[in-house]
């Protein structure tokens, strides 16, 4: 899969982007486990992608839900056995 971040919020520690093969839109948050730092990517609608692109801060409530693992049903890739902690 080819992930392409379109906008990044350094303050909010997340990115929005498009998976180039499928055209799916995502929101990514950084996570870390004891071995590696990586990103978890959550599916978002085109409407949310456009809204977040216009105003990155509008994504913060969704970002917090992702960090609290309340949106796991939207994960684009299942977490591994040693799932990381949001950073």
TrEMBL record:
<protein>
    <submittedName>
        <fullName>Uncharacterized protein</fullName>
    </submittedName>
</protein>
